[in-house]
Amino acid sequence: MYSINCKGRLMNFNRPQLMGIINCTPDSFYAGNRHLGEDILPVAQKHVEAGATMLDIGGQSTRPGSARISAEEEAQRVSAAIRLIRNTYPDIVISVDTFYGIVAEQAVEAGADLINDVTGASIDPLILQVAGRMQVPYILTHLKGNLDTMQVAPHYDNLLSEMLTYFIEKIRQCEENGIKDIIIDLGFGFGKTLAHNYKIMAELETFHLLNRPLLVGVSRKSMVQKLLNVEASEALNGTTILHTYALQKGAHILRVHDVKEAMEVIKIREKLVSASTNQ
What we know:
alpha/beta; eight-stranded parallel β-barrel; globular; 9 helices; TIM Barrel; two-stranded antiparallel ribbon
């Protein structure tokens, strides 16, 4: 079973882990998850009490077409939030969601335990050096294209094969930079059509070939909204179905807006597994 070293604390994945999302932004795609200043602590409390073992703190929206802010402004947002949360919840694992090396470095200094880079170091390759030098785990995301153009007619000749090739090369780069713990994020919605997203989910077990923990981030995303013709605010039920399926396929981490509901999925699935093995 996999484990990662978070600044000397070992996190294992004998049980699926829940990563609660906290966006310190005014323009997150899901309006229910836009938080700034002291408003962050009640959200962190809600996530932790519902069962999150990880909190992912982001200061810049990565939805297609979103406006970019400077690394300096982003660093101020996330570092302040991380200090608040770390002081209140000293044992929670904190992830910083950024693609800038300088933001990642300041966030780790402020108390973050791992780096979540949705660009696979394509915007700022120095982020790999930061993760390696500071000896923190790195979440490696699959992204085709760039954040501005990724959803403009993305095309693959062989989706799963191309993704595996991407991850193998990126893992090599991570290891060359001294990164020891790598988590694989399949990048749902990052350079994928609706069909691509569901193909990846349907064959999620393919990515166990990489021999790394798998993170699934589908919470309230467009793959739910578009298929069911609902807004993000109405996408919880569809998200829950995808979470159930992802766990059946062996996902190790669910990155979620709604921790309570995701924990219910984990508990019910565990009960079913237990019932099926008991005579």
